[in-house]
Design goal:
By secondary structure, the protein is of the alpha+beta class. It is built from 13 helices and 15 strands. Helix content is about 30%, strand content about 20%.
């Protein structure tokens, strides 16, 4: 047993120092979970070496105080849904061995990951679990870390990984720092006309059809592909002002185009939802700045699939993202949803509208991982993948994460609606190769990434 240090309980109806009320974001994420939708992220960590189970358990147990959210479980205090300390947190129940999966080839490994992804986390415990495969067929080990989205968004998950998983590196920058962003009192954010413009851009588009809509099943299929970050950065330099994030969306769009073209699908536009981290914002009034880590918003844009030219696609996406960043769309939407949440029926209606497949076809997130190579118990991490759950009428989701000089694309799909997600991952890989093979014109000074006024980057990605 591991009893977390410094545990305190609530006295009466007051909240103790470590008891935290669930935020509206936490509650809405928990409410999404049902028989066919799980509510967690998954980080797949592949290391070049052998992970000892007991050593890993001991290392994590010693460092849990650095990520106190991992010691909290769901509970109720004074009638309010809350995160409460688990005084008998047993690391052995959260870090377990999955030895029988070690003999699988790469396709079998993906099937094992998908099978784990389908399983629900135990709500009577803190909402995370690490399954360790001590020996892979091709060498090395793997760690599959499931972490509930109600407990942590992508940015917070990486902060937790730095706190409890990656080996400590002397002199390494503090990965727990919030990304620099101005407070929500920015007058541009609260300008009524700006809010109306943002709402118009983000409104559902009923004329668009999603190729990924349908009633989803509980089964999952996953696929991965990767691209060198420097190559993608150079490719982005072909369009003035384009960023790595724009290039990521271009790769996704081109992969979707190839996949749809092979199936004689419609090559028009596909609307995507792009999460935006707001962790740098000052906490909203009456909100605890130290609550568990969901603080994000989003904007939507149409991925152009008509042209076969990757540069045309990149330029069109850059124009669309620039408008949304300069218009503070993510912050306007965050403010609007908080205002609507004061009237529960209005807030619930708005959530249903914004989750409709006519609002977006798929979600594409991009979260910054470690900038430098990392190790786990002395074993170098050779690959880091991120997977995020789909939802009803959205049979595909793409999660991108970086590790040192590599960007990994992780795809999650419902195989009953999208049977060949591995082919789609291959199409994205081919599109990345085509984009990065284009000779880059001389970059103008204004091509370098300059944070927009609100500092928001898709998925919380900082300029690279």
């Amino acid at each position: 047993m591991v009893t977390t240090p410094g545990n305190r309980t609530a006295a009466g109806t007051g909240l103790g120092p470590e008891v935290r009320r669930l935020t509206p974001e936490d509650l809405s994420i928990l409410a999404l979970e049902n028989k066919t939708v799980a509510g967690h992220w998954c980080k797949v960590v592949v290391v070049r070496g052998t992970l000892g189970l007991e050593l890993l358990r001991s290392s994590i147990a010693e460092r849990l105080s650095r990520a106190p959210e991992l010691c909290l479980r769901l509970g109720e205090v004074g009638g309010e849904p809350s995160w409460v300390p688990d005084p008998q947190l047993d690391v052995r129940a959260h870090v377990v061995e999955l030895a029988q999966a070690g003999a699988a080839d790469e396709a079998g490994f993906r099937a094992v990951v998908a099978g784990l992804f389908e399983q629900r986390l135990d709500r009577s415990r803190p909402l995370w679990r690490m399954d360790v495969i001590p020996q892979l067929a091709w060498g090395g080990s793997a760690l599959i870390w499931r972490l509930h989205h109600a407990l942590a968004d992508g940015w917070t998950a990486m902060r937790m990984a730095s706190a409890v998983l990656w080996d400590e590196q002397p002199g390494a920058p503090d990965s727990g720092r919030r990304p620099p962003m101005p407070g929500s009192a920015d007058p541009a954010v609260h300008h009524r006309l700006g809010g109306l413009r943002a709402a118009a851009r983000e409104a559902p588009q009923p004329w668009l059809r999603s190729p990924f809509t349908g009633h989803i099943d509980a089964r999952r299929a996953v696929a991965f592909t990767a691209v060198e970050l420097d190559q993608l950065r150079r490719a982005a330099g072909a369009v003035d002002g384009a960023t790595v994030n724009d290039a990521v969306l271009t790769v996704v769009a081109g992969g979707l185009r190839r996949w749809l073209e092979a199936r004689h699908g419609h090559l028009g536009k596909i609307r995507v939802k792009v999460p935006v981290s707001l962790h740098g914002l000052l906490p909203a009034p009456a909100e605890d700045a130290h609550q568990p880590g969901n603080r994000d918003s989003f904007f939507c844009l149409d991925l152009p699939l008509g042209s076969a030219d990757p540069l045309e696609r990149l330029a069109a996406i850059r124009r669309a993202t620039r408008v949304r960043k300069q218009g503070h769309d993510a912050q306007h939407l965050d403010e609007m949803m908080r205002q609507l949440a004061r009237t529960p029926r209005l807030g619930q209606f708005a959530q249903r509208v914004l989750a409709h497949p006519r609002s977006f076809a798929l979600n594409v997130s991009n979260v910054p991982g470690p900038r430098q190579p990392v190790q786990v118990l002395g074993a170098p991490v050779g690959a880091l993948h991120s997977l995020a759950e789909i939802r009803e009428h959205h049979a595909l989701r793409v999660a991108v994460i970086s590790l040192a000089g590599t960007l990994s694309f992780g795809l999650v799909a419902d195989p009953t609606l999208l049977a060949d997600v591995d082919r789609l991952a291959s199409d994205m890989h081919a599109e990345a190769a085509a984009l990065t093979a284009i000779p880059v014109r001389a970059r103008h000074a204004e091509s370098a990434e300059v944070p927009p006024a609100d500092g928001c980057q898709p998925g919380g990605t900082v300029p690279r």
